[in-house]
Amino acid sequence: MPTVPESRRKLPKPTPAELELLRVLWSLGPATVKDVHRARQAERPDVTYATVLRLLQVMHGKGLLRRDESQRSHVYAAVQKPDTLRTGLLGDLIQRAFAGSGKDLVMAALKGHVSREERDEIRRYLRESGDE
User: Rounded to two decimals, what is the model's pTM?
Assistant: First the structure.
């Protein structure tokens, strides 16, 4: 049976807590548990080292992270780039919440979830890409 390349394999959706750790890893790059814990504590002082370790181990088991075990302290890295994960999550949200309509998603976002500055940035993007 042929193996599916990692880039084409369907990965599980991260939980909210796992997504927070992915954000940390995307900003730090490959990092030890200690590094991730320290960065996470800057935002949530109540998060424990044991919790971060357990989540990273679970995420590795689910295939969301790679783990380099060649050093005494294991180094974790995200398998997917942020844009790849966001695109997948967004596609799932569009299917589940908006019956497959990207327009309905955008309209819902524009009704109170987008600041004036963000609207201006969206307009500029549409003008520059020739879509407006």
Answer: 0.73
